[in-house]
């Protein structure tokens, strides 16, 4: 048995098979498939996706390089639709019972040869295009294969480090736990793991070896430890710990429907943070008082190279609004950039992305994209209790400009006779020291506030939340931060507005009493943390 210690990121115990995440594997794997029909269907799905990509590429490149040059992508579509090409690939899958990626690669080479022999005109001299089509297909298929992680059996995912854009694309139902070599506790990937309630340990270093791929692993998210090929005693102990945890969680269930009130009668609301539509179900199960933070940027990251359309966004926001009924749903406009780049936007090279092109700065720069999102939020507002919140605010002017775009979106919808909530509440996040200092002025401009303690800590302490090396400087208990929280709360309350905390500090039970004392109105935490926080509040004198 090998025992490794890292940093705890998300509590819980996971027991399963370790599987290393493969990023951009150049080598094409060859493996046997049992269900050839299913594999052919996977190939056909990949082929349809490749066709769509090529159609988009064709349209986009007409503008850049003209119709004649763009025609190359039309020709590539013809290759994908060529029955001989399709038959060659499905033939390999059917006859040799091999995986689709390998079939595509080997059949493409064969196809090139037979085209020459048989004098197939339209592909003559286009070997490169056939290979281009083939590698597009392999990329798409490998991704779907990666998403499926080669197995239907749930696994514990290991990686050097996982980017938020990758984490958000994984099939969560297949992941029992996360373990990584590197990474920081406050990174967005860690935030995602907590939101999903997946036991995770990070920062295990080089000791987490590739050789462990496929071996049994136990992840103890409470202690920040992992055990590879655990011995009988450890396995039994960890199984017991897992069961105890399950029964503790069950025990908390009795708090469902109960108030978040201290023994002396002080109340505070508890809401939940989400990143995607799949999380809505978890919020309902958690008995949270609403959605205190919808990190909408994950919709952009999931959508890969294309911006999510207004309709796509509207459907997701509507779903959240309807699911929550009268309970609030706070949709934060896209907080992209920093450690949350998205393939659909060009972020350029930045020396210091955390202090760069991110959050509201992008929205104000890309006003059409911003307006599209605001239109989607406005349209969803008639289906529940929706409000909108702007991230990464540093000035009053930013808020005023954002509100102007909101007004334009409202005006357009009115002209189109599309319904929306005219009184939709507007809030801002307090994530920068600048926002703290002008919170009084901001409070006269907006309806509500939410403190993003993750970013407020990094900007106050000048300590990158991603950088593990200086993590000891990232101290959310620092008196400077606690003072800031108190100052903002007072300023906001002086204007009669509401304030919540939606950063990870909201779930820090050692601070719950302090938050109640200073009069925080709401704490927004990950769905699995809701009932534990309720218990803490109810135990306070
Ligand atoms: C925060 O900064 O605390 C916050 C809630 O936003 P995010 O973690 O998504 O940056
Ligand atoms: Mg933030």
Automatic annotation (TrEMBL):
Coiled-coil intervals: 396-426
Cofactor: Mg(2+)
Catalytic center residues: 188, 502
Chief location of this protein within or outside the cell: cytoplasm
Taxonomy, superkingdom: Bacteria
PROSITE patterns in the cross-refs: PEP_ENZYMES_2, PEP_ENZYMES_PHOS_SITE
Binding of phosphoenolpyruvate, residues: 295, 332, 454-455, 465
Subcellular location: Cytoplasm
Sequence ranges assigned to domain Phosphotransferase system enzyme I N-terminal in this UniProt record: 5-119
Catalytic function, reaction form: L-histidyl-[protein] + phosphoenolpyruvate = N(pros)-phospho-L-histidyl-[protein] + pyruvate
Every PEP-utilising enzyme mobile domain range: 153-224
GO cellular component, one term: cytoplasm
Any one of the GO BP annotations: phosphoenolpyruvate-dependent sugar phosphotransferase system
EC code(s) of this entry: 2.7.3.9
Gene Ontology molecular function: kinase activity; metal ion binding; phosphoenolpyruvate-protein phosphotransferase activity
Family annotation (Gene3D superfamilies): Phosphoenolpyruvate-binding domains, Phosphohistidine domain, PtsI, HPr-binding domain
Keywords: Coiled coil, Cytoplasm, Kinase, Magnesium, Metal-binding, Phosphotransferase system, Sugar transport, Transferase, Transport
UniProt key word Transport: yes
NCBIfam families: PTS_I_fam (TIGR01417)
The family this protein is said to belong to: Belongs to the PEP-utilizing enzyme family.
Protein task: General (non sugar-specific) component of the phosphoenolpyruvate-dependent sugar phosphotransferase system (sugar PTS). This major carbohydrate active-transport system catalyzes the phosphorylation of incoming sugar substrates concomitantly with their translocation across the cell membrane. Enzyme I transfers the phosphoryl group from phosphoenolpyruvate (PEP) to the phosphoryl carrier protein (HPr).
Protein's recorded name: Phosphoenolpyruvate-protein phosphotransferase
């Amino acid at each position: 048995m090998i025992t490794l210690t890292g940093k705890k990121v998300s509590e819980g115990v996971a027991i399963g098979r370790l599987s290393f995440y493969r990023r951009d594997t150049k080598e094409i794997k060859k493996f046997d498939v049992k269900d050839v029909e299913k594999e052919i269907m996977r190939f056909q799905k990949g082929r349809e996706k490749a066709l769509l990509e090529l159609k988009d590429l064709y349209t986009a490149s007409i503008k850049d390089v003209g119709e004649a040059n763009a025609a190359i992508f039309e020709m590539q579509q013809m290759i994908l639709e060529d029955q001989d090409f399709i038959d060659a690939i499905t033939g390999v899958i059917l006859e040799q019972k091999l995986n689709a990626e390998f079939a595509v690669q080997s059949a493409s080479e064969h196809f090139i040869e037979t085209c020459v022999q048989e004098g197939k005109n339209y592909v003559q001299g286009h070997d490169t295009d056939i290979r281009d089509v083939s590698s597009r297909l392999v990329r798409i298929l490998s991704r779907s294969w990666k998403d499926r992680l080669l197995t239907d059996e749930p696994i514990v995912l290991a990686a050097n480090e996982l980017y938020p854009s990758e984490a958000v694309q994984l099939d969560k139902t297949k992941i029992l736990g996360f373990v990584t070599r590197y990474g920081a506790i406050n990174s967005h990937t860690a935030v995602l793991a907590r939101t999903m309630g997946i036991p995770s340990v990070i920062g295990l270093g080089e000791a987490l070896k590739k050789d462990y791929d496929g071996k049994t692993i136990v992840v103890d998210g409470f202690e920040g430890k992992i055990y590879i090929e655990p011995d009988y005693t450890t396995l039994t102990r960890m199984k017991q710990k897992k069961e105890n945890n399950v029964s503790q969680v069950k025990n908390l269930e009795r708090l469902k429907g109960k108030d978040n009130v201290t023994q002396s009668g002080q109340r505070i609301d508890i809401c939940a943070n989400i990143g995607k539509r799949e999380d809505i179900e978890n919020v309902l199960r958690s008995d949270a008082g609403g959605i205190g933070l919808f990190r909408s940027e994950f919709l952009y990251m999931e959508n890969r190279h294309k911006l999510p359309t207004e309709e796509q966004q509207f459907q997701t926001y509507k779903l959240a609004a309807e699911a929550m009924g009268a309970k609030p749903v706070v949709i934060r406009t896209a907080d992209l950039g920093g450690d949350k780049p998205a393939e659909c936007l060009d972020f350029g090279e930045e020396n210091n992305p955390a202090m760069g092109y991110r959050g509201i700065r992008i929205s104000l720069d890309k006003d059409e994209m911003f307006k599209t999102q605001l239109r989607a939020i406005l349209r969803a507002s008639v289906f529940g209790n929706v409000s909108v919140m702007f991230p990464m605010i540093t000035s009053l002017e930013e808020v005023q400009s954002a509100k102007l775009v909101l007004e334009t979106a409202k005006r357009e919808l009115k002209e189109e006779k599309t319904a929306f909530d005219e009184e939709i509440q507007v809030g801002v996040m307090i994530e920068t020291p600048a926002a703290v200092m002008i919170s009084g002025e901001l409070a006269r401009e907006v309806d509500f506030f939410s403190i993003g303690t993750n970013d407020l800590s990094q900007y106050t302490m000048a300590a990158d939340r991603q950088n593990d090396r200086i993590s000891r400087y990232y101290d959310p208990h620092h008196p400077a931060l606690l003072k800031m929280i108190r100052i903002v709360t007072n300023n906001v309350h002086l204007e009669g507005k509401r304030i919540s905390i939606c950063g990870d500090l909201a779930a820090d039970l050692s601070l719950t009493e302090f938050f109640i004392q200073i009069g925080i109105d709401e704490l927004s935490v990950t769905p699995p943390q809701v009932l534990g926080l309720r218990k803490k509040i109810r135990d306070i004198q």
